[in-house]
Protein: Acyl-CoA dehydrogenase
Amino acid sequence: MTFEMNEKTKALRAQLIDFMDEYIYPNESVYEKQLNEGDTRWEVPPIIEELKEKAKQAGLWNLFLQSDEHGPGLSNLEYAPLKEIMGRSLIAPEVFNCSAPDTGNMELLEQYASHEQKKKWLKPLLEGEIRSAYVMTEPDVASSDATNIQTSIVRDGDEYVINGRKWWISGIKDPRCKIMILMGKTNPNADRHKQQSMILIPVGTPGVEVKDYLPMYGYDDAPSGHAVVEFNNVRVPVSNMILGEGRGFEIAQGRLGPGRIHHCMRLIGMAERSLELLCKRANERVAFGKKVSEQGVIRNWIAESRIEIDQARLLTLNAAHMMDTVGNKIARKEIAMIKVIVPNMALKVIDRAVQVHGGGGVSDVFPLARLWAHARHLRLADGPDEVHVETVAKLELRRQAEIAKDLPTVTV
Amino acid sequence: MTFEMNEKTKALRAQLIDFMDEYIYPNESVYEKQLNEGDTRWEVPPIIEELKEKAKQAGLWNLFLQSDEHGPGLSNLEYAPLKEIMGRSLIAPEVFNCSAPDTGNMELLEQYASHEQKKKWLKPLLEGEIRSAYVMTEPDVASSDATNIQTSIVRDGDEYVINGRKWWISGIKDPRCKIMILMGKTNPNADRHKQQSMILIPVGTPGVEVKDYLPMYGYDDAPSGHAVVEFNNVRVPVSNMILGEGRGFEIAQGRLGPGRIHHCMRLIGMAERSLELLCKRANERVAFGKKVSEQGVIRNWIAESRIEIDQARLLTLNAAHMMDTVGNKIARKEIAMIKVIVPNMALKVIDRAVQVHGGGGVSDVFPLARLWAHARHLRLADGPDEVHVETVAKLELRRQAEIAKDLPTVTV
Amino acid sequence: MTFEMNEKTKALRAQLIDFMDEYIYPNESVYEKQLNEGDTRWEVPPIIEELKEKAKQAGLWNLFLQSDEHGPGLSNLEYAPLKEIMGRSLIAPEVFNCSAPDTGNMELLEQYASHEQKKKWLKPLLEGEIRSAYVMTEPDVASSDATNIQTSIVRDGDEYVINGRKWWISGIKDPRCKIMILMGKTNPNADRHKQQSMILIPVGTPGVEVKDYLPMYGYDDAPSGHAVVEFNNVRVPVSNMILGEGRGFEIAQGRLGPGRIHHCMRLIGMAERSLELLCKRANERVAFGKKVSEQGVIRNWIAESRIEIDQARLLTLNAAHMMDTVGNKIARKEIAMIKVIVPNMALKVIDRAVQVHGGGGVSDVFPLARLWAHARHLRLADGPDEVHVETVAKLELRRQAEIAKDLPTVTV
Amino acid sequence: MTFEMNEKTKALRAQLIDFMDEYIYPNESVYEKQLNEGDTRWEVPPIIEELKEKAKQAGLWNLFLQSDEHGPGLSNLEYAPLKEIMGRSLIAPEVFNCSAPDTGNMELLEQYASHEQKKKWLKPLLEGEIRSAYVMTEPDVASSDATNIQTSIVRDGDEYVINGRKWWISGIKDPRCKIMILMGKTNPNADRHKQQSMILIPVGTPGVEVKDYLPMYGYDDAPSGHAVVEFNNVRVPVSNMILGEGRGFEIAQGRLGPGRIHHCMRLIGMAERSLELLCKRANERVAFGKKVSEQGVIRNWIAESRIEIDQARLLTLNAAHMMDTVGNKIARKEIAMIKVIVPNMALKVIDRAVQVHGGGGVSDVFPLARLWAHARHLRLADGPDEVHVETVAKLELRRQAEIAKDLPTVTV
Structure:
């Protein structure tokens, strides 16, 4: 019934904090500079590969993996404080081979892929040699409802033929991205949750067309980007099917829980860094004759931010612990709860920091505007708030209906 | 790094839940009825003494006490889930001898009183034979700032003479209330925090005048009530001084931490019960052709309430754990944080429940309006929100100033 | 396209403000004192009849009436600033014969009653000689949906027989209350909005039983009160039917618009008075070495309150103007909008004032706690927020659907 | 005491709406396309000059000007509904020669410039032949407090020499921008509000260096942009001084009122367009088996948005009317009130629309993300919220202190 980190986590966290101080924060501007120096912004800044090498050597690698074959093997509860630290910089997670969508894809492959599939794609992903994309969302339907998906996967002899139109395919423009995991429908007439399948499509397969990227609040998120991708009679061997036809929904469900909590852990780090910047700025800046940090409303923002961050962190740790002990399915209410509250908390805290930074806050002088835009899209990615609110409401009403059997009904 | 209750707490909690189901909830209306049957409402409803006897025999007695001489001896972290259960009914805490202001007064006496003082006043309080009042707040000054206090305690030979005017003296109208602990100034010229002293004044001492009670949103809170009390040349022996002249501020500080967290624990129980009532009602009521629980906004309220309660509970447990491990002084930021957020959380949840109950919600058909009023006064009792917000801001800025030394300053 | 009051309104407003200063505010405590001096609180404090006489002589009488036969004959837009002034004191509206439910009942009778009915009941109401009750809400159904109503009105020869159970019948305990207007069903098999009828039932008719009053957040609202009323085989002559069988829903709709806007006007006055008290207190009180009014958060509350009140007033004036020019039916979106926003605005402003007044705020030392409770019940009276939100959403979506015909659909 | 537009405004508004439908909305994508086709994004898309010509011929030109020499000559109250319509598209205001910073600069020149200055710079601005920049904000100080400004203007014979560093100079990268109005200090030892002066600096004057642009949430706002500009020994003739040395603060104050209300009018248009898009999308999109517009929370958002927009519009009209009738100085509380509430209102409404549009909302498929970023910077431009909140609080407390003289002080 206590809340402390165990020794293993403490040690890794201390190591990670040092690494961030020494290698990450000072290189954020280097990364940005290299990105602008290339012929296009769709080339990988060399600094990132240098940092990856250092992180690997330091053993700060694949921390997200629960199995201990390719990393330290951490539970969700152990990983949470580490992912929070990484979340403080948008360039950090990749350095530790802990960035979406690769993490979710690696987990998926480890859990559901065949031996051959693992050898070909999981291994280089674990080594950080290639990157990957997760191809699910479609522009024409509300994709938060997976049963809406329209992309078709049709068997034709030894091949599957894929046709469809997807968007928000993050990372697809990265030159290192070599493999896509696509969700489509193999059988539109099957049971509602048996229609979908997941299939591996190597980048460069004929018929795959990457259209222009989708900016996010004006940011291109280069070199990864988010793009519309069209699939026109794309053919892959039948051995690229993951787990089997009709298993797509099941795989997607398994992938989502960890993905959502990883986002939340990162968001807590973003909020924490924003509060740090807010306090620093408020202490340095004078307006109308007194320090900004001495002004009542700013002090309120600081106190509220402190409280909101701490509440969100505890709720996230609680969800992590539930996932570790009773499993992702039983913990789905707890996962939905953090997916609702944590992005909204982070947006509030970051926005207060933006306001205190004035013109610098809304521009690129500080990382705040970019952090805000990133956090904002996390109210939509992996399901919009409304879907998760509905999950919480449904499960809570179900629980309360049990309790209510014993309650008297009041009459007037 | 986990959040479960230990076995001791689990067992007591199960016992407590059963006791609430069997004896407390069914007797809430009995209590109200007996209160209205007396000649005045300032008589003790007999049911309360009957229930106290049952609780004592069940060993559910003095659970708040950390020493195990007069109860099970629980840490704050162990007590929190129990006090939450008690908090679900406004009549419950007293039944388990766990109600304010007696709890704080007992802790104070146990910690600071002389052997003689303990024998005379602490013992019957621990037995639940008498009740007590805590006499601090004054109507003419902002009492959240203890240095404002004006009541004088002047030594005259073997006696102290007390003069002043106090208000919000809770419980003073209860016929079982036998002793007051008063804070006043013995030396207005001493250092700012050495001017105050605490002294014991038996109820009935000449010169003490209890004026009319202060209603709280229309509630008289009988038979305890809150009243204005005047002290005109009230004389008590010097042996009634607690700890010594000039120690009042120090004692007050020691009393406040536990008092504040106990309120928070109770508020979580109030919120939880309100959410329970909300869900039950929403499932039973039909408007415009569908169940209230199927309407989108109500589902949002349910999800938000679930999230807000769970966050508040975790933050409260965290504060409890800090108090247990690093002490109330170091944990004062954590205590301030919950004192800000928990009453406001409870007010939101209760108010949503009120709205779903319509006319019954704002009246006495359900306990909701009364719970709301009680929770509302807890945004003021033991310091208004603003004071605690300021504490959080000050301590967070201090912490951040340490961190900031290592941060680079950005120039444009 | 300007916002000034016309000369007629300005003159009446100035007169009203003087009257409030001279007669109303100083007598609020007299009223309370007389109320407590009677044998029960259900007797009329004599001061109220004295003040009514003065108001009548001053021509500040029946200001709510749009016809100029019994008052100055004001439009909604002219009445709004006057009702706001009255709203500043809970005892004021009655003094000017402008208090609910009499106002709505008088409007109803003037518009729909027969000559005989008017002579018997409308005339003494206009003179302020009697009071009345409006008997609509039922405890067992969501009465915001009028089609839920279950009380039966069955014709039996020359009489109608009424059976049913009603609650929240305001004013019924006032000894001057002589007549009830009840809504029930004459034909449960008719079209959905033709089942209901309204009928006059004199207080004291056999079979009418007034049960205990319903407190509102602990307030009894004496001498008017709110009560449960039972109707057991209550018989009245057929001539007591208003307008005719099956016309009840139509009459109710006509009554509601003005009733709702009158509440909103009053609420603006309550908020304005609360802000006045807040500022006064903040200027007088010192905490932690500086005036409360110099503390940042309090200044924020003041600015926000000023903005919120002014916005709410303008929206209310806009609704009043719409009602005057295009009629209550076309203005129903505007009426719904203020019915949602104004009580919530008032609650925020009053609650801030409560907080600044500390213990005095939640008690009866200042009028704030009582004002809050009154404002809170107005989020339910005449339909809960949720019903009005739904009205606004429905009408706005309808309007937007028209516009949308001309908008291009974006495809990705 | 009514709220209708007069005939003149109605006619212009109808004309404007038609123009927007015919020429503006369909050319938003053309504008964006041309911007991307140029060698750099810092060239003017030809479509804008074509549209300007059309607007000029239609008489929809210089609508912001109160004098009727160069346009229709409208009061603030008449202009407000027109500027709202223009505000619906980020490219529209320029088409009607009604875009910042030119509008403020033209007003400034018209009011304070010499005949020669007007001939040289005001005339081509009124004709839409050139554009201009307003050079005030500095990166190193809190520029919301104008007395902080550090740029120096030193007389040297027949010239002034300017040295300093400015930022957020909007429009400076536009190739049509020919003139800057700079605020600096001529005498740092004069009275606090007499130190500043305003001076004209032609673009291209030696010593002026335009540094890289400042993105705003990732947007470059090309071809206008916002940039850092350095002034190193920049020399202009003494005849370029506006009004005289030491008059800068006075001029700045005169410029601010209209600038702020124009922003607010535009923001209402942005919010209105966003609500339109929200409703359209919600009606077209299906999720989990029902239309998004039928889901409870979305309906709440629609109703709240409707209410919030209407309140903000009325408050803005009220401020416009005050400015027209009692002058900008007396109306400064009203101006501050809208500058606080309107950007925040718009942000809420736009963000709800973003959420309903999912991935398209945060990207460039719809104009929403860009509108949001634009609205967000208006919580900082022309003074951050906090400064205006403080203005409202100060003026309201001053007003209340007058009232309070007549109020009794309550003692307990």
In short: Chain C has three domains: 7-113, 131-242, 250-404. The longest helix of chain C spans residues 248-284. The mean pLDDT of chain C is 94. Chain C is about 50% helix and 15% strand.
